[in-house]
């Protein structure tokens, strides 16, 4: 990723910050054509991040995106099952019918969309704040799982 570029995109994960949509569309087409030899511009929708009060300091502005386009991934990336309210460890495997997008405060491989707080010391955004799971079929049903901590400090999703 180029730090001084106005348009920043994460090539490992398939989301594009929506600052310059024409460049984003061109970049998506080029990347998709070179990787899969087939153009599939399926757009699930857009994610708007709300809640920042004030202006971000200059050194944080490139991290403070507020609009993201969720596009169908090159390869489906998640499948999991669980029942009841038991503690579980989830191993994610590829599933041809779903895509998952992870939102959190870190810029790391498990996190697709990084969301930061104006006051980074406060850590107001969780490492794994929420997950969006979208069905790849025609209706593109999306489910948002918000993360929280239980009484023992373990993360759980609802």
UniProtKB/TrEMBL annotation:
<dbReference type="InterPro" id="IPR048334">
    <property type="entry name" value="Pellino_FHA"/>
</dbReference>
<dbReference type="GO" id="GO:0008592">
    <property type="term" value="P:regulation of Toll signaling pathway"/>
</dbReference>
<feature type="domain" description="Pellino FHA">
    <location>
        <begin position="77"/>
        <end position="157"/>
    </location>
</feature>
<dbReference type="InterPro" id="IPR006800">
    <property type="entry name" value="Pellino_fam"/>
</dbReference>
<dbReference type="Pfam" id="PF04710">
    <property type="entry name" value="Pellino_FHA"/>
</dbReference>
<protein>
    <submittedName>
        <fullName>E3 ubiquitin-protein ligase pellino homolog 2</fullName>
    </submittedName>
</protein>
<dbReference type="GO" id="GO:0061630">
    <property type="term" value="F:ubiquitin protein ligase activity"/>
</dbReference>
<dbReference type="GO" id="GO:0000209">
    <property type="term" value="P:protein polyubiquitination"/>
</dbReference>
């Amino acid at each position: 990723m180029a730090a001084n570029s106005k348009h920043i995109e994460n090539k490992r994960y398939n989301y594009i910050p929506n600052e310059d949509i024409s460049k984003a569309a061109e970049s998506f087409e080029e990347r998709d054509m070179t990787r899969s030899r087939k153009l599939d511009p399926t757009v699930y929708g857009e994610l708007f991040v709300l809640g920042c009060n004030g202006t971000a300091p200059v050194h944080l502005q490139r991290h403070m995106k507020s609009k993201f386009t969720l596009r169908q991934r090159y390869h489906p990336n998640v499948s999991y099952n669980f029942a009841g309210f038991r503690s579980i460890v989830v191993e994610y495997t590829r599933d041809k019918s779903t895509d998952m997008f992870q939102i959190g405060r870190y810029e790391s491989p498990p996190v697709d969309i990084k969301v930061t707080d104006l006051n980074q010391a406060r850590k107001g955004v969780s490492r794994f704040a929420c997950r969006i799971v979208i069905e790849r079929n025609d209706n593109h049903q999306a489910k948002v799982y918000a993360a929280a901590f239980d009484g023992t400090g373990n993360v759980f999703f609802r």
